[in-house]
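Notebook B, p. 112. Complex prediction, attempt 2.
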Amino acid sequence: MRLLQRFYLVEVLSGLALTAAHFFRNMGLHLAHALGRKTARGAVTIQYPEERRPYSPRLRSLHRLVRREDGSPRCVACMMCETVCPARCIYIVAAEHPNPEIEKVPARFDIDLGKCVFCGYCVEACPEDAIRMDTGILEFSSYSRDGMIYTKEMLLALEPAGRDGRPTSPVPIPADRRP
Amino acid sequence: MPKLTINGQAVEVPAGTNLIEAARKVGVEVPHYCYHPALSIAGQCRLCMVDIEKTPRPTIACNTPASDGMVVWTETDRVKETRKSIMEFHLINHPLDCPVCDQAGECWLQIYYMRYGLYDPRMRDEKVHKPKAVPLGPHVMLDAERCILCSRCVRFCDEVTGTGELGIFHRGDDSEIGLFPGKELVNKYSGNVVDICPVGALTDRDFRFAVRVWYLDSTASICPGCARGCNIEVHVNRRRPHHNEGRRVARLKPRFNADVNRWWICDDGRYGFTFVDDKTRLVAPSSREDGAVSDATWEEAIAAIVGALGRFAPAEIGVFASPKMANEDLWALRRVLEQCGIRRVAFRVPPPVPGDEDTLLIRSDKNPNSRGAELLGLDGDGAAILRAACVRQVKCLWVFGHDLLASAWDPAETDAALRALSLLIFIGTNSNATSERAQWVLPAAAWVEREGTYTNFEGRVQRFRQAVEPLGQALPEWDILGRVLQALGAEVGAPRAERWFRELTSGVPAFGGMSYQAIGDTGAVLNAPSAGQPRSEPASRTPLR
């Protein structure tokens, strides 16, 4: 080790100089970008949430319940997803469907996203292709545990993500956060 | 006694035994749908094909009696190929709607298809459509598409109940199970057709969509519905509390016992468990003073009972034991009565309407343990106790479970007797008009929440086991009485049902030599000659499953 390096102060100052050089260079580039020069790109910063990284097409995001043509759930409350779910976060209560050819329909279909591990087994297990994890929605939060329970109505209202992987439906707002 | 060889194992069976039963004897299962040991042989399903040496083609095992020197093979390639073809035939018009079918998980069509099926179906035609979700009666739902026409239900209604409501109508692939015109499946054993239906064609309306069967846990128990003491399995849903509207007991199923109920139970017993998760269940000890009800702890409740037993003279205390209590409870009660010197005890409270009875299973006595209460010497004159209460000879009444106001006794007189009392103590599972009058109400555990034994009318002591935890603070009656006994200063051992039973066996000669191990799953008969005539059913018959 050289003598100069053994003086702590010298090395600290050279390090600060390097950091400051990067800081001011990037600040200039970001300012130029913000002022309209779109070719000017600063360091690897993504302007989240306006900008997002591209999502993989096999991304497992928030669940949705697929609808029939008449808007009723495609789900027949067979409990396969509830059975296979390793986190036990799906709660289904079955009811009689007026059409005996369909026979069963969920009266209640809740997913406790506070427990969900996003393994995607529910999608694999579904014999009716009634549950999918393709909404592209990743940001959901709540101030309470109860607020993480998403009901049948909330899950039915969701649409699949767009071609670019962006969500097309708004993030569902749990009942406890609604104004 | 013909001797034959099945899959290389030699076996000797009584003459007339068919090959399915002979194979069962050596532990070989021959798949079948239409054959049932309690019913006549139909030979409808053709699944039980086996190879017999020196016969040119596979033969159905259900209708082939074992004969001397027969050499039977049940797993040859030819037999497996035949099974596969027959399963394919059964499934031509089967809707394969397992996800919405209540039978899924306990369906023999699923089980055998997984084992022997042709996984790549060749059928491309539109399936024949038949009525779905048709109620046949108050308890049974028919899905004609799922039916494989084994005709077990038809034979059950013809041969076991003799009511003959069901038949097979139309021809060819339009054949379907149905009711004869103007009939309804309302016989007292209609729930059994659901049990014997090997597929999901007949399902239980009471259990419809309640719980998927793979969430259920099963416990061996005894039906408390009448003096027969049918052997049952209690199916409880512990793993998914949001199913079945939170009720823990999902259904009761019969359990084979050759000497009691064979394969069947009646509908009253099958659907008579709803009180367990009812809103009227008592969950905490409570006391009532001047109409105000307040919850109490067990210590306070026991102290109150012991105080009452000391405050009143033994002759001023009347006790209504219940024939719905187990032998263990009745023994604990007898010890309390002996400790205090109480003599006014009865257990019979006549029901307002006499119970129905038939020759198959149902007994008019709707209590599971009247015989046990008799043997323990608790039989007294209940009406006399109430008369004594009217004239204030009895001032404290201790009632177990009974609703004295809903009995055959004159309600006005009973009401007057209850009004005249200084203290009424009620111990039971559910509240009723009598418990509403009681100063102390103590919650007892229902029969599925505890262990114990019942003595049926034939003197067979049978054991029931705990399937779920007691609701709230409820305790088994033997535990409550044991605590009372302890507070009275008597010697009480470990708080276990088995200990009370052991004490009972040494105290009552009729129970002498019995133990929980000896009773096992099928029960043990009392030493003393029984009052009823034991039924002479062939004991060699074995259950289907």
